[in-house]
Task: structure prediction
Amino acid sequence: MTIQEWFDKRKAAQIQRRQMENRMDSEDFAADLWTKCVHCEAQITKKELEENMMVCPMCDYHFRINARERIQQLFDKDSFEELFSEIKPTDPLNFVDTVAYSERLEKAHAKTGMDEAVITGIGMIEGHKVAVAVMDFDFMGGSMGSVVGEKVTRIMEEAIKRRLPVLAITSSGGARMQESALSLMQMAKTSCAVSRLDEAGLLYINLLTEPTFGGITASFGMLGDIIIAEQGARIGFAGRRVIEQTIRQKLPADFQTAEYLLKYGQVDMVSKRSDLRKTLSSILDMHGV
Amino acid sequence: MMTLDFEKPLVEIEEKIKELRKISSESGMDLNKEIETFEQQANDYKKELYSNLKPFQKLQIARHQERPNFLNYTRLICEDFMELHGDRTGTDDRAIIGGLAKIGGKTVMLIGTQKGKSTKENLEYNFGMPQPQGYRKALRLFKHAEKFNMPIVTLIDTPGAYPGISAEETGQGGAIAVNLREMAKLKVPVVAIITGEGCSGGALGLAVANKVLMLEHAYYTVISPEGCASILWRDAARYPEAAEALKITADDLVELGVIDGAIKEPIGGAHTCYSEMSQNMKDAILNSLDEFEGMSADELRNQRYDKFRAMGQFIGL
Result:
């Protein structure tokens, strides 16, 4: 999408929003049925949003989704089989900041129902079997500690055993500070695992989703034979604020968006959420897997 | 020489010694006994001080303005060093320097991050913060070493990869990632030494090695203690607590299985005696290379893979 198209779209969305607001004034309005688009502020029904894959029907803004929703959207019905869920986090450094790490882990579990920031397993996309790692930003910002690194490595090793292509879907702020150097080493570990995929001649695909930063882009997140960025996702190495503080300049509005990365040759393509299944299936098909 | 806060009591004793010497030579009084006592005191204090440094104090030593930098080491540990420039796609990032070196009669590919000691130098070397092009230059040199069967030694001292607009546009994350993956494949021995600051992915991008060592007062971490404090404590000034919590010292990292060992620094830190520091480093490099002598390409790759494969702690088989 060019900048001009983006503005046009936004304008159209604003007009539609006003129409919607008028409609709402006249209709019965139940708050829990409605939500507001964080981008164009249009009032939309939750049902409508869900049916549209969590993409705003007015302005096409892609809401961030969690790992479970992603799996549901992308894989053939009931085809996903989770692996390595027995691997759970511990607190190797006894890390305490304003809150203890162990407590943060418990809170994240309570909030998401997950044990860690990644789900790994094997599933089918339009009949193509793939080994997959799906990150979940809702679990401690999708950060990578020992468990994320281990599960990502294991699914790659499993793919080598079963001769399967690998799909890594990222959504993460980067390495997890609470495991310090052990988190840093997961970058090395997962990248070493990718080197074995290379040697085994297996296809590795990255799908970068909102947001993908730091230790993930500097490791397995950017090593795909093919890198797809989901429309609107923010992707980068350093965070926007850190860059602004370092160079003391305002950054372009579209800096570090999927579209910006495409322009600078850092990703193979930008895909709308609604196109992803088809895109992935075509890629798998063209590689004969 | 720049004095660090915690060194002040030591400097005071040293001042006293100087004064006594002056009095002694001016008046002809025999103050040798007193001078000796103070010297003993200074020595004991120094040993005590430097063997019990807190992580945030090590941080100060690791960042000391006069700490030996990469080019100092090339002069002090190599019989010969010939720099090889450029990434062959339009850039010669000065924050990463590499070239052919003779160390103890062996030819090695020596690559490292370079920091300056003055503002002018720091501008030239970008404060030791590489751009993606620096990592790509390093990768080119890794491949050269592999082709000609030379071991690789990297010396790392960086506050991190540079966070800037063009760094993002030219793929900072991807450049580091590719180095991690490609270092895993190298058919020659790789020895990495964290000589000062080993900050985050920017340091790791040169450190997927068969053997990883740190200088005694260097630090190695996923994020700078200041960065960590500003995020988790919402106050960068609380970096001493973050430095403690992050377990950034060589001893901690040996225990966590992240590094293989520490190289002793002169008492008072590497900057107090370049020759002693360089000798220790040279010995460590040559001993490490000896360990890998005679290993096949597959053995080297497997040893490196298994080493990083084993890192991390979790529950479950």
Summary: Residues 5-52 of chain B form one domain. The mean pLDDT of chain B is 96.
